[in-house]
Amino acid sequence: MTTVTTSTGRRGASAGRRRRTARQVDLLDRLVALFAAEGFAEFTLDDLAARLRCSKTSLYTLAGSKQELVTEAVKQYFRESVPKVEAAVEAAGAAPDARVVAYLTAVGDYLEPLSRDFVADMAAFAPAAEVYRRNTAAAADRIRELIASGIETGAFREVHAAFAAEMVAATMFEIQRGEMFSRLELSDAEAYAELASLIVHALTA
Fold first, then answer.
1. Spatial CA neighbour of 114 closest among 34, 198, 41
2. pLDDT digits (tens, 9 = 90+) for 109-127
3. SS3 sequence of 151-169
């Protein structure tokens, strides 16, 4: 997973160029937590100001409109995932299979708190959906790197690394949509654990 940028309006772009204060970072983090738990489609800026106990002016220091605020919050959620997921990979050691499992498990753990309302709202809002798509594509690139490294060292059998990564990415999208795995009564974290086990066994069989 990695961070991406999207275009913003004039006020939002100006806010993005400035270094945020500690208070603004705290406000953005609380906004992310609110959206992750409840979604964002039904909120107005007045609602958000009331729930976060701040002024609309404070919200406008983060972005120039509700739409830009949503996009910035989604970007922030994925932005913060990068060091956490990569730390899990490094902690797994040098073994390629352990690193693949660690990566997918960490991604699953990070995405698990997202409510279905948030996921549905993100899918319906094109700028947010694009942020998610790019981050999933970046995750596929990272998985391809991990698989290619394992092939190079002989830990994994010879496969098309890019194809394997694309299959992982497609499954990640399905997990996050929740439709397939809700039928199997698996949590997102359990689904990612199963995906990690499946890909590692396929690569080492």
1. 34
2. 888 888 989 989 998 999 9
3. HHHCCCCCCCHHHHHHHHH
